[in-house]
Give the backbone structure.
Amino acid sequence: MTSAKTSLLTGRPLDGRVAVVTGASSGMGAATARRLAELGAAVAVVARRKEKLDALAADIASTRGRVLVLPVDVTDRVAVRTAADQVAAELGPADLVFNNAGVQLISAIDELKVDDWQRQIDLNVTGVMNVIAAFLPHLTAAADRGAAADLINMSSIAATRILEKYSIYSGTKAYISHLTRLIRIELGRKNVRVSAIEPGMVDTELPDHVTDPDASALMSGLLHDIECLRDTDVAETVAFITALPRHVNISELTILPTAQPI
Ligand code: NDP
């Protein structure tokens, strides 16, 4: 495998921006927090594993980035609301929200793994809504004062592809993609940009939670056979979306490894 470095943007196009990244303790969230900070944004990093967030924050701070660690479970609505108040108090109101935390647990429907169904719905649906509810007032306030304001929801190609045994995960991601289209009608008018990103296979910790042998074989096959996306590829995509002029909204974006067939 080659190790291409993706960096389209230079300088500090996000200077003065205040970003919130959920699911920032690993994978695409961590890479995105790092990249947004490099480009000038102050970044609040949200996830449950505090030690991972602390390590990321030390890394960002070592390059003089401003960072706030928020060890929060986004399924807890009150905790997310409190985190939003903390962001406002310590960094200023957020004008960029990467609503990224998610979990993928794959199983055949007749296995009735209802606890796994619920975990995915709690995080990928309720968690995503908790973040929107807590930070929307920040975003509309930023837009009202003439600044760029971005809500970027993490979906997946699973939102549209028909992948056997992915029913609940795909259902949650379809929810996110369609929700994004719908709320864009209302928020676009208020100059809040709303985007859904639908990645294909990205090499992260996500498959580590999958126990279904067929799904594990599909993902490890892809990881072995083709050059998958790196977390930094998606980070650069988020940075690009947010660095565009305020009147430009990339509303839906699919990003696939070039060699991924589906
Ligand atoms: P990771 O497993 O590395 O990241 C998931 C992140 O979500 C972690 O930082 C995790 O941190 C956080 N998280 C999990 N539960 C909670 C919670 N209750 N509250 C707050 N944070 C939580 O995988 P990825 O980077 O791949 O996943 C990021 C997003 O991308 C997900 O929404 C996923 O569905 C989506 N996606 C991934 C693809 C891939 O191929 N990898 C493809 C398409 C979409 P912690 O455990 O510390 O809380």
In short: The longest strand covers residues 193-199. DSSP finds seven helices and seven strands in the chain. The pocket of NDP is lined by residues 22-29, 47-49, 52, 73-75, 100-104, 123, 127, 154, 156, 199, 201-202, 204-206 (CB under 6 Å).
